[in-house]
Here is the input.
Amino acid sequence: MITLEHISKWVTTAGLRTFLLKDINLTIKEGEFVSIMGPSGSGKSTLLNVIGMLDDADEGKYDFMGNQVHSMKEKQRSQLYKQYIGFVFQAYHLIDELTVYENIETPLLYQDTKSTERKAMVGDMLDRFQMVGKKDLFPTQLSGGQQQLVGIARALISSPKLILADEPTGNLNSRQGEEIMELFKKLNEEDGVTIIQVTHSEKNAAYGNRIIHLLDGRIEHPR
Amino acid sequence: MIRNYFVIALRNIRRYKGHAGINILGLAVALAACTIIFLVLQHEFSYDQYHKHANRTYQLVRKDVYPDGDNFDIGMPFPTIRALRNDFPKIKFAEIFTSYGSQVTVMQNAETISNKKFIEGPGIIFAEPELFDMLDVKWLAGNATALNSPGLAAISRSQANKYFGDWKAAMGRYLKLDNNILIQVAAVMEDVPVNSDFPFQIVPSYKTFLANKDVFSYTASLDNWGGSSSNHQVYALLPEGSDAEGFNSRMPAFLEKYYPDKKNQPGKLYFFLNPLKNIHFDTRFGHNGDHVSSKTSLMTLALIGLLIILMACINFVNLSTALAVKRSKEVGIRKVMGGKKSQLRLQVYLETFVIVCFAALLGLGLAWFGLPYLKYIADIQQPLQLLNSGSITFILAVILATTVISGFYPALVMSRFQPVEAIKNKINTTAVGGISLRRVLVVLQFAFSQLLIVATIIAVSQMNFIRDADLGMDKEAVLLVNGNADSSFLSRQPNFEARLRQVAGIRQLSFALDAPSSDNSWTTNMAFDNDATDKDFHASIKMGDDHYAETFGLQLLAGSFYPPRDSTPEFVINETMARKLGYNNPKDIVGKTIRLGGGKWLPVVGVVKDFKNKSLRDEIRPTVITNNPKFQTTACIKISAANLGKTNRDIEAIWESVYPEYAYSSTWLDESIQNFYRQEERLSRLYKVYAGLAIFISCLGLYGLVSFMAVQKTKEVGIRKVLGASISSILYLFSREFTILVVVAFVIAAPVAWFLMNNWLSNFVFKISIGAGVFVLSIAASLLIAWITVGYKAIRAALANPVKSLRSE
Ligand SMILES: Nc1ncnc2c1ncn2[C@@H]1O[C@H](COP(=O)(O)OP(=O)(O)O)[C@@H](O)[C@H]1O
Ligand SMILES: [Mg+2]
Here is the structure.
């Protein structure tokens, strides 16, 4: 599904290159549940953003489901990720001005889904996460765990093939975190959704079937 | 989706109330100002455009070229139309004679007068029926054919209601004009719309005028080509397909053929056609309506409106881009959720649209409140309709244009946010165009405000100058009581005078044609010192009895004022006349002779100091003052300040007993002089209002900018405070910036203002000079206003807890 070849990303300050990612080679197959681990500042978020096409690499090739992402224009890329990728963030990143219902609905609006269809899909999603009663609340009226559930519901609404989750449990207590992990596991096993998550916790990483270690922008291969 | 955007737009407005409030208020004020300007322009540009044949209708006008300049006039010599009909059989012509300030007496029947008498202003127009082939009126009863017969008249609906209670009862009834001319109502027309310069009230047939010309002092035959009066006008309806150029090119030959006696004309004469649709805007001529609107001033007004709305748009852009920083996270998330640039831009436009719509509603409310005050700043005395199809279209167009202009830059900026950075709250003020764009915009706003401030100060000083100007005569407490020139009136004048002289409160009394400074101008060709050839300039003529000089406080420089009228009249001239005739020392000209028109040679007995013949716009004309009782129908009464009201009532009572059948009408000289400057007074008020608006809007903008800076400088201010900066040094940090901006704006505005106002002042012969003080005042006022506006936000920023502001970073 995803093939990264020699992906590097850097910033130049005062003429000096600082590598955020350096020569990353990585293949992820459809249906995998991958956990990325590494110390703070090692480039995990950067890597996830590159995979999510929110950010460009400066060098290297990126193949996503047969598409040469590195040579695509921003418009085509956004078309691509809009269709296949759902994002989940540590800080939830819900839109404060929108209700739970509207937050979940937003990706569908951008995909020009018809209004009747939209209603049905959002309704299903609210059922599935047992949040029907909360659909008219605003994010600030919810607990962190609930907000993250909304974030995941929003990521799932457009039935993505890939979910990218950047420390999805970072702001949650362990019980809430486990719930989210169970949910990911279920999505991965029952619906075949590919998941790449960044996590600091060994325990959470263990929900996945593969772990990638990053250090200073490089993938550490177990010796 | 669109509905969703609207919902969000409304929630965002609620959430960022302060921001939306400033935007809505600024835009609303601007929209109200623009809407009112639009209504004014719509009204002005509609004058006499509605006639079916407006495109083919013209007024015949004349230009007299003199060595000292061109003179334009709508008055045509009386024989003109007969000659025109003879030479241009395919063209339809109509002549009219207008009478200003006539008395109308309602008759019980053809013989008996009633006690209903009125002095009417404009609107009594003797006309040939052909006029109504050119101008559309709606006939309620009868029609224009009534104007074929002498003694018959058409009358407007409201005039008929006023005279006879109900226009339906008006047909066949009688009116008497100026106590002499009996007319019978033979047609009733609908009131002329306000956007016409032909304010028909009573339209007697032109033949009625011909039969009564002596009432208007035309004692000789009307075959004379030499004289003309702007009361006598000629209109033409060209056949389809022919143009005015063809006609105009035949005029020189026409004049050659008919104009006899060219040597008695100091100027060279031209006739040409002026389109009906142009009459309202042609400042070279007067017309029968109440004001001429120059296209330049209308365009200036349009420009002011445009700039005001642009200023509000600038505020919008400033505030919205500042807010964009706060909203960057939302934009980032939307992008990650798959929002395309175009979709994000659409959202910004829609939010802008919602705000603009709110502003438009509020603005319409403001305009509705403001509209009744329009008459103080524009020449429009009739109430205008706020909503009509034109203004609704305009408002919708402005809403759309404002949305696009205001939304464009914020939309561009927001849609360009890098999603990753936006989500991480890494968007800072530099990413939204930095402070420099806002600086440019604020400089523009302040430049415009200062332009208006300077314009206001200059216009107001000029108006004060005019009010206090030395006119060379005394205009205070002089009451002018208007009389008639008919023999019945004049025969009672000695009695009237004798009784007035017994009133205690009257200090001086003179019967005159008019006051030394007046809107009338009577000029004639003249010769000097027994030299038979006429001078190449006209003499301006004033007429008054032997009390004229003392009543108006004219100052004698040489000789004496003439004694009471005996058989041979004498002349008193002004300084300018003496100088024009080559006498720098007034003493030397006393005793020389002058011939006015084709009259007798008469001696100059005295020279008076120059007084302003007309408004301060006009040069002082070489003037001859003489005593000619048959024209001296205005009683000029200098009243002592004590018991003014009682004296006034006494005068009116005397009038009623001496002239029971004549309506009493009087004006104060200083008011009628102030009336010369009605347009300028309005203009200076208009400047005041719009300068106020511009300052208000730019202060909103400044407030927005300083809020923006406060956000940007939070950290800097925090660090400085931790390092021990005082509050005043932080205030300085903020105010220095704006002081520079205001000064830069001033540097741009000052020369423009100087140029424009110099241009305006050039309308006046007598004027103030633009000193440095005006500019100092303008920049001081701007700085003060800017500091006050900035002060609040700056003090808040300076007082903020530094630890808090640093922690949030
Ligand atoms: N735009 C950028 N410019 C400069 N440095 C950056 C930028 N983005 C990230 N970094 C730096 O790159 C490193 C990797 O960042 P990140 O991928 O967020 O790490 P992680 O998510 O593993 O904590 C960090 O040291 C961060 O400071
Ligand atoms: Mg990270």
Notes: DSSP finds 23 helices and 24 strands in chain B. Residues 54-279 of chain B form one domain.
